[in-house]
Amino acid sequence: MSVVILRDPDEAQRFLLQGLWLQRAVPPGAATVRHVLEWTLEIAAGGQPLPPIGMIADFGHAAYGADRDARAPREHLIVPGLPPALMRTYEDHVLGKVYADWSFERASDAMRRFHGRDRARGLAYVVRQFRDRGGIGGVEMSPGIIRSLLEAQPDDLLRRGWESLSAHGPVPLLIDLYEQLIAAARRMAEVLATEDVIALEQRTALADMGQYVAHRQVLQIANRLEAGLPRHKVKPLAGRQEVPTRVLDEDTYPVGGFASISTRGSIESLLQSQLAFMERDPESRPDLFDVKYLRDELYYYSRDENQFLRRRRAFLFYLYPDLVKARFKDPDLPAQRIVLLLGLLLTAVRKLSEWLSTDALKFEFLLVQDKDAKPLAQEAALLEMLFREQIENQTVEVRHFAEDPAAYADRRAQRTMCHALAVSTGRADVRTELAIGTGLTVRGPKPEVRIGYEAPTEIPADDPVESWTLTLERLLMLWV
């Protein structure tokens, strides 16, 4: 991936103005020039190398739906001096991949919810990730050159670009970059990675670099841990002896509906067709309906009287203040210990939601604090970004916590099956009477798990990351 620095203002303007005529999603026009230049300025101001401005325009119009009215078949302009098959190949491989790619479609849905400058920032993020994944070069220039073009009339800019193409032909650098785009599109499976799409959906792509990097690392760790778990639901840990003894009325639902037809039932369940046996004339009584009624030969709908039990489950994750010591990067780990911990908890929520889909689940991340101090405020903000959708549907709750953990867990266990996980760098015991207590200690590169009141044990593994995966599997075996 080579980057060319254009120091000559005239050469940089020629690169930009000629590129306006190479967009394909929407025909070049004065109405779109300003939007394209604003997108380009956002990319250049962020320190990114610029791909061809026509490619930026195509990505922006495709992402924000501006190309829908321009999808009708039409003949594109023949650009002077351009290789005949170059743009057709670009349409087939680059634009074709953009329109058919699932990751770009999801990213577009997320970006259309942005407003104002966030739209340009979102597009700049997509272009950067696409360039990085494809190893595509670019051009660096002063953002002031783009600002000067924004002050000019769009029609004049298009005229100057066309005159430059007619007089001198396309800049060789443009042709080289389009060939790089085509080659990269052929190599790439998807336009964006899954982490890129989630970053746009959860708006961390617009956050500062620290939050963005932490969010991305947690997602990558979670995917790595999930890949090491069994594909199907794990077997419950032997000897758990869990029996739902507290069945509340609001947890049971009638299956309902008419299940069959029988000769027993109440008059409101009578089949309407049985009324045909009645005679209109009262003097004709007893009629056939009366006879069938006495013989129990009338047909009734019979209801399904079974009850469906939806068990309530609550998972309380107590994060203690000493976890600030886990903001430490071990040589054998791909990220800080706290990042692996958050990735483990994220994967646990994902798998429990998948495997226990018939239960009413509630996940509470309780960040234990001392008085008014909030030492894990950064982790709380990151958890809120990771579980944005689950927080909105009230499946997940993230809050700072100053109560007695054991008393709160027992109070929650009075109405639900409650699991309490105490996470710290030391030994933080949550001794409960009703809830099921578990401990997770993060004092080194390999975590230690404690079930009940047993001593913390480190699960043997070949490398530290595998130890985190096996620890997560052990916890899931206890919780499912």
Task: Please describe what this structure looks like.
The strands form four sheets. A six-stranded mixed sheet has the order 9-8-7-10-11-12, with helices on both faces. The chain has helices spanning 9-20, 30-45, 53-63, 86-100, 102-111, 117-134, 143-150, 154-168, 172-187, 194-201, 209-227, 288-294, 337-355, 377-386, 388-392, 405-413, 464-479, and strands at residues 3-5, 138-140, 252-254, 258-262, 300-303, 307-309, 312-319, 360-368, 396-401, 417-424, 436-441, 448-451. The protein folds into three domains: 3-206, no CATH class; 222-242 and 310-479; 256-305, no CATH class. A hairpin with a 6-residue loop joins strand 11 and strand 12 (448-451). The chain is of the alpha/beta class and 480 residues long.
